[in-house]
From TrEMBL:
HAMAP family the record matches: Endoribonucl_YbeY
Superkingdom per UniProt: Bacteria
Localization in the cell: Cytoplasm
Protein source organism: Xylanimonas cellulosilytica (strain DSM 15894 / JCM 12276 / CECT 5975 / KCTC 9989 / LMG 20990 / NBRC 107835 / XIL07)
NCBIfam families noted in UniProt: rRNA maturation RNase YbeY (TIGR00043)
InterPro entries reported in the protein's UniProt record: MetalPrtase_cat_dom_sf_prd, YbeY, YbeY_CS
A GO CC term assigned to this protein in UniProt: cytoplasm
Swiss-Prot/TrEMBL cofactor(s): Zn(2+)
Function: Single strand-specific metallo-endoribonuclease involved in late-stage 70S ribosome quality control and in maturation of the 3' terminus of the 16S rRNA.
Family, similarity comment: Belongs to the endoribonuclease YbeY family.
Annotated binding of Zn(2+), by residue: 119, 123, 129
Name under which the protein is recorded: Endoribonuclease YbeY
Length: 153
């Protein structure tokens, strides 16, 4: 699996280890039966860049926590039936926004960014949370994936 992680945010977050985010992405993609030759990019950016992306692509003001940009519209596979190889897409995270959210939620900034990474990957795989049933499915899945990843570390 080709997973590229880059921190261009300039924001100092204690414990932001790019290898940890690559390991999480690999874990989630394996659990979702995504082909091992799939490609994924995870990029950490500052609030200015995130604001520009949020306005341009979502027509929403201000920075947001995470944006997902799917490429080949891959969907989860099944046991013994992987997705075809391809480019999953890009996940863009804003550590400054994530840190603020973490304070409100009562956990660390790293935990928040790991959650947001999982959330972003699920969006790339076609999950959404616009409707209550979709939200229940997606949030339950992201919780299970993140907790099992953290327990395996």
């Amino acid at each position: 699996m080709s997973i590229e992680v880059a921190n261009e945010s300039g924001y100092d977050v204690e414990g932001l280890d790019e290898a940890e985010f690559a390991a999480l992405a690999r874990y989630v993609l394996d659990a979702m039966h995504v082909h091992p030759q799939a490609e994924l990019s995870i990029l950490f950016v500052d609030t200015t860049v995130m604001t520009d992306l949020h306005v341009r692509w979502m027509d929403e003001p201000g920075p947001t926590d995470v944006l997902s940009f799917p490429m080949d519209e891959l969907r989860p596979g099944r046991e013994g039936d992987l997705t075809p190889p391809g480019t999953l897409g890009d996940i863009v995270l804003c550590p400054e926004v994530a840190t603020q959210q973490a304070l409100t939620a009562g956990h660390s900034a790293i935990e928040e960014m790991l959650l947001l990474t999982t959330h972003g990957i699920l969006h790339l795989l076609g999950y959404d949370h616009a409707e209550p049933e979709e939200e229940k499915e997606m949030f339950g899945l992201q919780r299970r994936l993140l907790l099992t990843f953290l327990a395996s570390r």
